[in-house]
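# step 3/5: fold
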Amino acid sequence: MLRLFFLLPVTLLFFVAAQAQPYEVRVKIDGLRDSSIYLGYRSEDKNYVVDTATLDKEGNAIFSKNKTLKRGVYFVATPDKNYFELLMTNNQKFSVSTKYSDLFGSLKFKDTPENQQFYDYQQYMRNVQRRAEGIKQQKKRNEEGKKDSVAIYQKQLEDIEHSIDSCIKTLAAKNANNFLGTLLRAMLTVEAPEFDIPETVANKDSVRQLRAYEYRRDHYFDNFNLADNGLIRTPFFAANIDLFFQKVILPSSDIIIKYADTLIERSRADDEMFQYVTEHLFQYYQKSEYMGHDAVVVHLADKYYLSGLAMWATDKYRSDIKERMDKMRHSLIGNTAPELLLPTHENAYASLLKTPAELTILCFWEPSCGHCKKELPLLWDLYQKYRDKGLVVFTVYTQYKRPEWDAYIADHPYDWIYAWDGVETTDNSGKPTTFSIGSNFRTLYDIRSTPTVFLLDKNKKIIAKRMSIEVLEKILDEEMKRKK
């Protein structure tokens, strides 16, 4: 779609611009005058202002430009950061009035039925929530010694939940073909059906709960109309995506990839929604601190960006992604560790893959690194704990200063493998110098800081990586228990 847009003739571009529908939102705020007000929307955790207007001495202002605003939940904010909400739908010519002393409570809309219904719904929710809060306080006061009263209050709260659900369903059905309907349906929780569990099944209730969880997990986004990009400009859409991937599914990279692909493929019904969902997940997992989530990043990069499906991505953006992925993909958990054939401190050569071990700790480090100074002695202690059970430690000095390396080893004569990427020689003037043997270890293991630690199994497959020695010890304990 974007590619075709950039190929459109200039005359057609002018025609499209001329056909843009202007928005015109007339605002009156009694009790506020000669002040700037702001029209904007909230997406993720940021507010975006799209227009500014100035109230005259009567409190009147007009937001208006010769373009169509994108659908969504918008706000009108005053200089003191008070605000009220309104919907920007297909109809973008309407009026709203209120009082500065009671911005929300005094709202009145004209020529926009969707906004009036949205406001009525918000009023209903405020009243119901006040009532529910009062019942909760009464329930709390009677929790000790008045079980019958507590049961009555609990039933009242459940009735309120049912009435809210019924209200949303009714209003959503009434607005099935507009943005208000999209918004309300997205607020509904997916209901799991009643599962018929045979009497012969043990722990029927647990099985029924598991089936209900699996159903809600697999249908979590059923009520979200991903063909309507207005959801992007709401306060809750990104929060629901994050909630699902943080709390609803397990944080396993394979599971995340499965559900990320499902959501992204559904979002392709709309170009803007496709870009938003894909970028949101791609950026989110690049910042994830969970071990192994880099596999999610590589998968999304390969499937959507480097394949060309992400048509919004510029050549520079794709090039940067490719460069980064080429460093990440070699050392993903589950992969066989890339071979390192390196000179040792004793001027022999050590092969990572040919070094026999039940488990191998691969540690990239340097003596001048403050964190390394703390972690390597801890690693030595851990090595002593498990060396008799087949643990091998293979360390790689990441710099090329032989005297620095020699001095550290003289002070720490640990009997593990000390290797590096360097070779000592002399230059044309006979001066000692060091050069790299070209093992490419930084790219193969994506070394960006030290210490960087990997744990490999007997077959040199990567079990864990980029962890503290404290976390490494816990993982080793579990691995050793599993081997018994």
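# step 4/5: annotate
The first strand starts at residue 23 and ends at 30.
# step 5/5: archive (pending)
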